[in-house]
Amino acid sequence: MDYSFNTILINEWLSKCDSNIRDIAKDFLDLSIYISESEFDNYLLNSLKEMLEYFDKCNIKKLQFFNPENNIKKSNYWIIMKLLNFIDKDKYIISISDNIKDFDESTYIILADDASYSGSQISNYIDEYISKYKIFIFIPFISKIAIERINKYDVKFIEKNRYELKPLTELMENEKIIKLFDYYGTRNIIQYPIYFNHKVADSYSSFPLIYSYGIIPNEKNKEIINDCKKKMIPLKSRFNELDKITFLNNSKIVDSNEYDINNPKYPISPYKMI
Fold first, then answer.
1. Which tens digits make up the pLDDT trace of 47-59?
2. Which of 12, 55, 115, 130 has its CA 20 to 30 A from that of 249?
């Protein structure tokens, strides 16, 4: 299913923005990046080819995938399952486990995921479980900050075929960022203006209030959001009062029962439907 921007709905959304922020809101949407399913799969397969070429060069035949949360509804497990469709099982010995004791310590342990923005989650996995081991980081979409954070360990990255995630602060003037996100109750923006056909990341990494929920930057919404922050009540409690136009194809406006800023409704992630 396609979750790209719907141009007609984008124009409707922009028409409902406050006039003094409309141009900046358009600039934000223009620089936002959508990664289609085919584009994502292309990066995934090229990254797999790069990893296997490196392993072949090192005469490594064991592919040891660490699945720390042992949860089939997580992106890291989904990535591993996708990769298995393209790996020669007669050539490589494949193991998947959440138990580090199941692995051969003399060779690489593979940590796989779709994307890493801050690198904090991957670093936590390494700190907690595998800091003493050689690690291959299989993450096709990754930021400089994540690489710097993870690089303190004994790790090997995808290098030639990775996509470098860039935060909004590298793509838009700070004055414009402050003006736009003042409507959303924050000025401290470290997120990334990118989303995938299989997901919008949570509010720590991306912009689900805009991409997934279509909340319009207008004075009414600004007052509701700021009132929730001032009273320290969840936005969910007044979510249905907000002006919204969802502009991703195949998405619709959700009510407060479906609102979750850390688990955006749209796009619907295939691994969460298992």
1. 999 999 999 999 9
2. 115
Contact 176, 152 (CB under 8 A): no
Give the chain's end-to-end CA distance (angstroms, integer): 16
User: Measured between alpha carbons, how far is 175 from 158 in angstroms, rounded to an integer?
Assistant: 35
Other Cβ atoms within 10 Å of 163 Cβ, number: 19
At residue 205's C-alpha, the angle toward residues 252 and 26, to 5°, is 60
Provide the 3-class DSSP secondary structure of residue 223: helix
Q: Are both 171 and 187 inside the same structural domain?
A: yes
Examine the domain organization and report whether 217 and 178 are in the same domain: yes
Q: How far apart are CA 210 and CA 214, in angstroms?
A: 5
Closest CA to 44 of 135, 134, 133, 140: 140
- Number of domains forming the structure of the chain: 2
- C-beta atoms surrounding 57 within 10 Å: 8
Selection from 7, 49, 4 nearest residue 26 by Cα: 7
Q: How far apart are CA 239 and CA 244, in angstroms?
A: 10
Q: In sequence order, what are the residues at sequence separation of 6 or more whose Cβ sits closer than 8 angstroms to the Cβ of residue 31?
A: 171, 172, 193
Start-end of H helices in 17-113: 22-31, 37-57, 75-84
Expressed as residue numbers, the domain containing 236 is 7-32+166-272
pLDDT (tens digit, 9 = 90+) per residue, 150-171?
999 989 999 999 999 999 999 9
82 within domain boundaries: yes
Helix (H, G, I), strand (E, B) or coil at 49: helix
Averaged pLDDT score across all residues of the chain: 95
b (16+ CB within 10 A) / e for 99-123: eeeebeeebbbbbbbbbbbbbebbb
